[in-house]
Amino acid sequence: MRTTTFLGFVELLGRTSSVTLARAYVRGLLMAAGHRDTDDVELLAGELVANAVNHSNSGRRTSGTIKLRVSAEDRNVRVEVTDEGSAMPIPPIPAQVDPLQESGRGLWLVRELSSAWGWTQSAAGRTVWFEMASPQRTGSPDSNGDDATER
């Protein structure tokens, strides 16, 4: 049986500043749940929020919003970013990206770093989600021992 644990939900404005807020929010949720290595999850959440700001109605409308939901299921963390939709379909993901380019890498990174990802479209907007193996938990048996009690 799979157990899903809801970690948090936040609604952000469709503004560039929301990328930093989203990353900090995800880091805070995961750290509070005992996870230590949150960098990749933070990065991908930030990329999805940036895409929503730059490519959806959430970023085009004055009062546009983006919804960010984080949950954990078994040994995976799932992040969902919902925007207010767009007339554009999800863009194709390049096979390779130019490391010096400052844009166009978001979904490529999601594909490369996540264990699973996808998107759904509804009348309310588009949700892009990804799952990653759960970042190492503080004191877990597979941690590097920093949190272990010496015997």
From TrEMBL:
It comes from the Bacteria. Pfam families: HATPase_c_2. Residues 18-130 form the Histidine kinase/HSP90-like ATPase domain. Residues 131-151 are annotated as: Disordered. This is Anti-sigma regulatory factor (Ser/Thr protein kinase). One of its GO terms (molecular function) is protein serine/threonine kinase activity. InterPro entries: Anti-sigma-factor_SerPK (IPR050267), HATPase_C_sf (IPR036890), HATPase_dom (IPR003594). It comes from Sphaerisporangium siamense. Keywords: Kinase, Serine/threonine-protein kinase, Transferase. Gene3D superfamilies: Histidine kinase-like ATPase, C-terminal domain.
